[in-house]
């Protein structure tokens, strides 16, 4: 158990490098591990279950009293940023609908579950962050296929029903099960089972990213300027998500804690979801934009929060010690 705890702390500390390293592993070992990609949906379902054990239905009641931040973040995540991503993709890659779909896929997936770790580390509003994750996770099986069907359904074949079923299995069922157990144990499962599963959940991240990366190995081995342009496009769009979250938090005069939660959740994405869907339903050209986002997401959020932390009032630091 001591080893597992040490492993978990190590993974949390070096998370900005874990996902890029896992991507490189997948590309290099593609001939040997590519055949095991069928494991990915199961590993992802486990990650969702483990990451949702700290969530209970009662948290949503608190946010219901002040739903504006939640509504704003959901708007940024599932209306504003998808439209911007689609517009940019259409402008830059009009001749390649698969690249457009891949770029869009990155910005229709739900907010990242790991965002709660960052919100907690930088003393943001955990209840708000958790509620955003809960609502976004539970609505993802409906919103993702719908967004893709509406925006690119005429250019690319979208198996909306199959996608919906996979998202139910990977996200909705494990999340609801974890939340039910949290409610049943009055939150105690967060202290008992969650810490034991945490190291395995971190290992699952490596499994998911590495196996998904095997599908884009040919693109990295034959890397060219167009792919570099896509990577830069994804990076700039990702930065835009954080900027919009921060601007909106200022517009509604949110305090520091709410600003952290709004900014992080508006910017972070559960890119693994997009990568899994891309690997199951689309060719490698869609997979590349979805996977390249894993290279810089954790690094990017660390820079954003380093900037925000400079505005943290001393009273907030004392209140949360």
Please work out how many helical segments DSSP would assign: 18
- What is the subunit organization of this protein? single chain
Secondary-structure arrangement, i.e. CATH architecture: Up-down Bundle
Residue share in β-strands: under 5%
Fraction of residues in helix: over 70%
Tell me what the structure shows.
The protein has 18 helices and no strands. It is mostly helical and 321 residues long. Helix 2 (15-28) runs antiparallel to helix 17 (297-309).
Draw up the topology in text.
Blueprint: H1 2-13, H2 15-28, H3 30-33, H4 40-52, H5 59-64, H6 68-92, H7 97-106, H8 115-121, H9 126-152, H10 160-184, H11 189-213, H12 217-221, H13 225-251, H14 256-267, H15 271-281, H16 284-292, H17 297-309, H18 314-319
Task: Provide a brief overview of the structure.
The protein is mainly alpha-helical.
Which key features would you list for this structure?
Na+/H+ antiporter like fold, 321 residues, mainly alpha
């Amino acid at each position: 158990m001591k080893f597992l705890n040490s492993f978990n702390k190590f993974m949390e500390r070096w998370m900005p490098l874990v996902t890029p390293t896992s991507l490189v592993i997948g590309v290099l070992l593609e001939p040997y591990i590519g055949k095991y990609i069928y494991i990915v949906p199961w590993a992802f379902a486990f990650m969702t279950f483990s990451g949702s054990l700290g969530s209970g239905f009662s948290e949503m009641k608190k946010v219901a009293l002040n739903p504006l931040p939640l509504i704003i973040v959901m708007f940024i995540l599932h209306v504003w940023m998808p439209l911007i991503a689609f517009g940019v993709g259409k402008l830059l890659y009009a001749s390649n609908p698969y690249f457009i779909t891949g770029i869009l896929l990155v910005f229709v997936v739900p907010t990242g579950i790991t965002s709660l770790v960052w919100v907690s580390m930088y003393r943001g509003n955990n209840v708000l962050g958790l509620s955003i994750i809960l609502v976004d996770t539970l609505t993802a099986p409906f919103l993702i296929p719908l967004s893709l069907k509406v925006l690119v359904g005429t250019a690319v074949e979208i198996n909306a029903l199959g996608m919906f079923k996979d998202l139910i299995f990977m996200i909705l069922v494990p999340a609801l099960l974890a939340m039910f157990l949290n409610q049943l144990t009055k939150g105690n499962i967060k202290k008992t089972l969650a810490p034991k599963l945490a190291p395995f959940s971190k290992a699952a991240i490596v499994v998911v990213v590495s196996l998904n990366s095997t599908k884009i190995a040919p693109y990295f081995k034959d890397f060219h300027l167009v792919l570099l342009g896509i990577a830069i496009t994804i990076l700039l769009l990702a930065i835009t998500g954080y900027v919009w979250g921060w601007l909106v938090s200022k517009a509604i005069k949110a305090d520091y804690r709410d600003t952290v939660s709004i900014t992080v959740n508006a910017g972070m994405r559960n890119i693994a979801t997009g990568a899994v869907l891309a690997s199951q339903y689309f060719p490698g050209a869609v997979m590349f934009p979805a996977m390249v986002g894993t290279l810089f997401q954790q690094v990017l959020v660390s820079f954003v929060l380093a900037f925000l932390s400079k505005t943290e009032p001393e009273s907030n630091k004392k209140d949360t010690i």
